[in-house]
Amino acid sequence: MDYRDAPEEAAFRGRLRTWLADNAARFPASGSGEDYWARQGDWHQALYAGGFFGLTWPRAYGGHELPPVYDVILDEELARAGARPRPSLGYLVQGLGRHGSEELRRRFLPGMIDGTQRWCQGFSEPGAGSDLASLTTTATREGDTYLLDGHKIWTSYSDVADWCLMLARTDPDVPRHKGISAFIVDMHQGGIQQRPLKMINGVTSEFGQLVIDGARVPADRMVGAPGEGWALAMTVVGHEREPAELGFTARYGKLVRDLARRAPETEPSDELRWAAVQAEMLRLHLRRRLSERLDGVHHGPEGSLDKLLMTWVEQDVGHAALAVGGTRDPVLFAEYLYSRSQSVMGGTSQIQKNIIARRILGLGG
Prior knowledge:
Largest sheet: 4 strands, mixed
Shape: globular
Number of strands: 8
């Protein structure tokens, strides 16, 4: 693959740089404060209105249907400008796009992509995070609706979400992977109570938990057939774990360069040297992944390898931030604290290692 910009890619990069120069400063770039998360929806809609979001998704649902290299250009330029990353939404678009009916896709994908409707993902539960198949939230059929009861936790953007792509058990009498179904649930109803979760960096508006007591969802908002929720879940988490879908990996290199400029005029610390190596390793790995995608390669369990690499890099960069700023610099200390969560969110590192061992290396029978 030739990584130099083609003429049309260079023109896109130029338009994007001009747009960022005029607009990025209006939105806080650090994820360490409440105001950052409060403006996330505005940032999403501003990117979309500028023509810089939904680049690879189908035109029929509001996307631009461009090759994936355009997302890479977007990520590079957002990091270069010191702007916040693009919203992490691709895994939900991929899940609904692959498993939803055409009626559901046309009803919900445009609002999801343009940011006029906020979404969350109702997968994790207090007793079923890493072992998702053991979830206990139930959906019981009553006429043309399902009655939902249960508890979800670590639900990103649950405080502002209009809709939730939720997993619930519809059949307790079959093997646990086969008794799960997926639903599009209206978050603005009395049967759902949202409670904030305070993170170690003090932020309370990124994650929440949902107490679900008699919430209702029309039967025609089931995504796929009864019992097919596990297949949707695997699609969603597969994309959720792929750094190319997340958009913020380019930020690691930018942060390392910023730390190098802020470090004392002595030899860089071992932490900073190692973070620089790791960030470059991930950048090159993503280039390889991009080449594979352009060749039509569909990534399956390899997403776990990507997620594990991304976790190592984010935590190494976090250690470097701590080495440079210590606990006296609130911004760099917040970077370190936030990096600790990467080995848990989107599936723990232990789960990723199990998937790599069993599904890629064929170990463990």
